[in-house]
Design brief:
The chain is of the alpha/beta class. Helices cover about 35% and strands about 25% of the residues. The chain starts with a strand and ends in an 11-residue tail after the last helix. The site of adenosine-5'-triphosphate (ATP) has 10 residues, from helix 1.
Length: about 240
Amino acid sequence: MRAIEAKNLTVRFDGQPVLRDITFQVEEGDFLAIVGPNGAGKSTFLKVMLGLVKPSAGSLHLYGKPCGAIPPDWVGYVPQIKTLDRSFPAQTIELVVSGLRRRWPGRIKKEERETAIRALGQVDAAHLAERSLASLSGGELQRAYLAFGLVRRPRLVIMDEPAASVDVVGKKSLYGALEEYRSEANANIVMVTHDWGVAHHHADCVMVLNCNMISFGPPREALRDEHLQKAYGHIGHKIFAYE
Ligand SMILES: Nc1ncnc2c1ncn2[C@@H]1O[C@H](COP(=O)(O)OP(=O)(O)OP(=O)(O)O)[C@@H](O)[C@H]1O
Ligand SMILES: [Mg+2]
């Protein structure tokens, strides 16, 4: 069974296409990276996967079901960190338990606490459980949100620029934790990233998007200069080593 199958997927806002005629497939267990310039429709694509935006035309199926019709337990979502309110008065553990319950917890039960601590441990963040969210660094907060996304052990992890505020060492262990989860759970990962190096090194397939699907395939193919040029207009200097 295909994990993700988009057929001529089109989304329009106020008549304007934001995603146009997107067709591709991803196999179970694979890691898809989505790259493209600001406003390319990347977050909109994730919202279609999450059932929050309806296709204007075409279709998107996840594990053989129309998106929006899959059990909520199958999907874990890690939001784009810049959209989060850091001043929210809560502890890390409450955030992770809210991912488990799908609503904000009042009193946390013992088993919930244990499950949440396990999820935090998976991303090397168990020591942050009792800290207030406001006191966490950007990278620590991102780990807390990764634990929030993984706590129900989803089949599909959807992430919007998960490493935006994480330093180089933090990134390495973030992607390490993610890879570990993926192989252990045979989960799919769909990640929007502005980091072509990450797409190259971690993904099985890459989609370069700018409203249209510019390219799709193994990283080496999809990230060829000509495709990036087409998507971004120019590609500046690639500062990552491919090999
Ligand atoms: N609800 C909406 N109504 C109208 N236009 C929208 C809506 N959501 C997004 N857009 C527009 O759709 C386009 C794509 O937005 P989207 O957020 O998907 O881009 P993105 O690729 O995630 O960009 P970024 O890299 O900045 O996060 C943008 O022009 C945006 O203004
Ligand atoms: Mg976005």
